[in-house]
Amino acid sequence: MEPAGPCGFCPTGEAQPARYTCPRCNVPYCSLRCYRAHGSCAEEFYRDQVLGELRGRSASPSRLALSRGRTSPLVRFQLPNVLFAYAHTLALYHGGDEALLSDFCATLLGVSGALGAQQVFASAEEALQAAAHVLEAGEHPPGPLGTRGAMREAARILLGEGPANQKSYTLAALGDLAQTLGRARKQAVAPEERDRLYRARKKCQFLLSWTNENEDALTPLALDCATAHRAHTVAAEEVAALTGELEQLWGGPLPPARRTLIEELPG
Fold first, then answer.
1. Separation of first and last alpha carbons in the chain
2. Which of 17, 65, 83, 109 would bridge 116 by S-S if both were Cys, CB 3.0 to 4.6 A apart?
3. DSSP letter assigned to residue 6
4. Which residues touch 219 (CB under 8 Å, ≥6 apart)?
5. What residue spans of the chain are helical by DSSP H?
6. Which domains, and CATH codes, for the chain?
7. pLDDT tens, position by position, 24-71
8. Is 5 helix (H, G, I), strand (E, B) or coil?
9. CA-CA distance, 21 to 13, in Å (whole number)?
């Protein structure tokens, strides 16, 4: 099949032949980079991919019962951090290829402080911002969802399939994480890495059981995530608007060179 013409998403002067067509809107593009850049279709594709991975999956929360002692009220705020990292990593690695298991877990534990560093958060917003900061700092590969998309997916997972089975997606995500971390631990060689994966897996199992017993806490968490997503979106739009004004003032993406206001005359 002949290319449909030049790709409309390549940088100016660098257009490549558009060899592919978006299955949603039929717009031609040349590469994965341009597909990701072409707008809402790509965003919706990766969003659907996350929930698509969870539909039909089940977990076994009864395998690990919560202790009879009182559970910390901060436990619930670890979920948004874990689910943000899960959504980001799942979209980044297209569902998790077994050959990329080590990279998948490294990214997951790097983005989720709750899993990778046993961090504790005092609010859903703090939990999401901590994960978002890791991505925005460039410490791990950026994903197709972006920070706002991962926040939104955390909220969608917490909402589940609806009031009748709200915990389904969260249980499926945590169950998938526990299994993935278990497989990665079997492959790991370094004792430190095996221990880190073990602790992360136990954390997922604990959250799995907590979620199973506290389904009524998921709706408030989802609303908190949605609120954080909106606030993050507004802040990003304000930064983008300010950046645009500065670039217009400068006449380009960089500020002009500093000019000497007072020049000393030679003696």
1. 75
2. 109
3. B
4. 158, 159, 166
5. 32-37, 40-54, 78-92, 101-111, 113-116, 124-136, 146-159, 168-187, 191-213, 218-250
6. 5-35 (3.30.60.190), 40-60+71-244 (no CATH)
7. 667 777 776 676 666 555 555 555 555 555 565 555 554 555 555 577
8. coil
9. 21
